[in-house]
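USER: Study each token:
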Amino acid sequence: MSSPRVGIFVATMTGTAEMCAEEVQAALEQAGLSPHSQLMDGLDAGALTPFDFVVIISSTYGHGDIPDNGQALFESVEAAQSLGGTRYAVFGLGDRTYAATFCEAGQKWDTLLAEKGASRFAPLVQHDASSGTLAEDIAGAWAVEWAAQLKQAA
């Protein structure tokens, strides 16, 4: 059986989401997978199609916005006909002190992917920057929870 293709896509303003992606990638590699991680800069919905599993890691900025480098991909996915057959997971970053928009970008990704027919393979996680925990530690632990299942699922 071949190893499933896992793509990690990162939308970030300050680099924290990128650190989370590094931890997710490390957890997946530890489980024997070979994930491909990349920033969303300049990507369109076609970038998701080569992968059996898509992991979105996105911070939230402004008034619940997708980071600048992820907006084009988000809009391209919005315009796509269907993502049926795509399996995904979302790790959102936010800060509860901004209660009205807490992790809104991650929620937007999760909702959009589901609306386009993709199916979630791991629970949506919303990390709170004011919680006293490091987002990258939580992201790595989250990936450990489901990494072994991915290896068997494809």
